[in-house]
């Protein structure tokens, strides 16, 4: 057998096997339909057989009656194989084409809020904040409201029965325990001691469940003193700027050198003309005797600027150029922020750095860190689905507000949310601990819908006694992200 024939036969056998495998999944579904299919055709021949014999029905009523039962088993025995073969031979379209893209995940919808918080500042010489807590549910709720004060700030007045407690380090927080009736609004207020004029103070506020473990909602406000506007920094006049002074000096020297050269050239011409005019004619004025004896004319050398003038002008110009370049480079180098992270090149958007309670926007999300608390060292245990924590590890929980500012749903990932520790070390968000803090809800599983906002706890497992110094939050791998400095 030729080699080409063997290849063709092998290919035909392979294709035939593929056809059989493609038809096998249709057999189980075709069998019940084939068993049920003969029943309607079995009833249809009955009237057709009785229709041509109307006269014969009268003499043989008994013979016509038993025929239908005898005819019913015959189609049941012969028709199912035919129907089955027909269904097997018919091409069965696949349930899902291989080239079809898998369906995308639906964007996550934030759970309905039961309590909302709004914070506003008052126009006063000292910082004052007005907090409105509203229960939008149909049942009364117990809530714990916490307001984070700026580092070093102290309260002078607290309304609504709140109390001020230290929150670690130099930070202080004001806490209220409230019972909110259904569809009610409670107004709270705090007043702080006067600070330096022009210094903004941000005080984020969050409403938590009665045990203080899960946030309902958060809001923030920044108080700015209504003081006299700061004096505008005006630039020095042109005659007091070093580049202008150096350039003017160079131009003045060049003009002076040019004037000296022109004066010396004209003076030489005058001396020559005077020497020629003093010579008298022969014989005491008897006139000119022609032809005059030929006298060689003196060779005049072309006047050029002296070497010292050219060298001096070149030195002045070079000094001006070097001075201007050095002054410009010094200003540009002084304007570089050495503490700022790189935000160009492969990054999308511009990196933003802020403090606690300040909304920071990147390419897709607007992040606001309202609160950060850390447990005692050694209290970080094993969570569901997570690995073992370090021996001296502890959980640090950050209350973060995330808003999708784009027109499309956006995913985000736990690996891109980082907490930076002293010494440059960093850890990513603990996904299992974050799921536990959100009552089993995986906040990273589904993308965020366009325009939605979530307030949720992010948990970081750190080791050592030092809390995180900075949080880095971002929506994507190439996003510049935002950085929040911890107090």
UniProtKB/TrEMBL annotation:
Keyword Chaperone attached: no
Compositionally biased residues, Low complexity: 73-88
Segments of this protein annotated with the region Disordered: 35-114, 149-170, 275-298
Keywords linked to the UniProt accession: Membrane, Signal, Transmembrane, Transmembrane helix
Chain segments annotated as transmembrane: 242-263, 307-327
Name used for this protein in its record: DUF4352 domain-containing protein
Compositionally biased intervals (Gly residues): 278-287
Ranges of biased composition (kind: Pro residues): 91-105
Lineage, uppermost ranks: Bacteria, Bacillati, Actinomycetota, Actinomycetes, Micromonosporales
Top-level division of the source organism's lineage: Bacteria
Organism listed in the record: Micromonospora arida
Signal peptide: 1-22
């Amino acid at each position: 057998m030729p080699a080409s024939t063997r290849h063709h036969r092998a290919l035909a056998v392979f294709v035939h096997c593929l056809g059989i495998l493609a038809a096998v999944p249709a057999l189980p579904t075709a069998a019940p339909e084939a068993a049920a299919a003969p029943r309607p055709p079995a009833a249809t021949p009955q009237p057709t057989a009785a229709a041509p014999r109307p006269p014969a029905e009268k003499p043989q009523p008994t013979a016509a009656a038993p025929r239908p039962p005898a005819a019913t088993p015959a189609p049941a025995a012969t028709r199912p194989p035919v129907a089955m073969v027909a269904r097997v031979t018919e091409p069965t379209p696949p349930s899902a084409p291989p080239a079809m893209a898998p369906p995308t995940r639906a964007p996550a919808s934030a759970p309905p809020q039961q309590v909302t918080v709004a914070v506003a500042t008052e126009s006063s010489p000292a910082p004052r904040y007005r907090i409105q807590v509203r229960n939008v549910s149909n049942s009364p709720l117990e809530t714990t409201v916490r307001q984070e004060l700026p580092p070093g700030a102290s309260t002078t007045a607290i309304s609504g029965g709140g109390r001020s407690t230290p929150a670690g380090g130099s930070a202080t927080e004001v806490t209220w325990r409230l019972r909110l009736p259904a569809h009610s609004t409670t107004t709270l207020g705090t007043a702080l001691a006067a600070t330096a004029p022009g210094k903004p103070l941000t005080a984020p506020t969050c409403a938590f469940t009665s045990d203080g473990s899960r946030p309902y909602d958060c809001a923030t406000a920044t108080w700015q003193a209504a003081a006299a506007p700061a004096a505008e920094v005006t630039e020095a006049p042109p005659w007091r700027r070093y580049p202008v002074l150096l350039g003017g000096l160079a131009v003045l020297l060049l003009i002076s050198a040019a004037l000296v050269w022109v004066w010396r050239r004209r003076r030489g011409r005058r001396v020559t003309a005077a020497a020629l005019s003093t010579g008298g004619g022969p014989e005491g004025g008897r006139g000119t005797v022609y032809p005059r004896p030929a006298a060689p004319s003196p060779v005049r050398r072309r006047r050029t600027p002296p070497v010292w003038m050219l060298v001096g002008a070149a030195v002045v110009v070079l000094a001006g150029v070097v001075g201007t370049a050095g002054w410009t480079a010094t200003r540009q180098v002084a304007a570089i922020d050495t503490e700022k992270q790189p935000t160009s090149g492969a990054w999308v958007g511009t990196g933003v750095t802020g403090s606690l309670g300040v909304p920071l926007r990147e390419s897709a999300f607007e992040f606001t860190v309202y609160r950060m608390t850390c447990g005692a060292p050694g209290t970080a245990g094993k969570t569901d689905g997570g690995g073992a924590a370090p021996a001296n590890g502890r959980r640090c929980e950050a209350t973060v507000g995330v808003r999708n500012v784009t027109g499309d749903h956006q995913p985000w990932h736990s690996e891109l949310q980082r907490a930076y520790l002293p010494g440059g070390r960093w850890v990513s968000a603990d996904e299992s601990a974050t799921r536990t803090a959100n009552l089993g809800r995986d906040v990273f599983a589904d993308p965020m819908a366009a325009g939605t906002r979530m307030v949720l706890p992010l948990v970081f497992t750190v080791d050592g006694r030092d809390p995180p110094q900075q949080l880095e939050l971002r929506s994507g791998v190439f996003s510049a992200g935002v950085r929040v400095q911890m107090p």
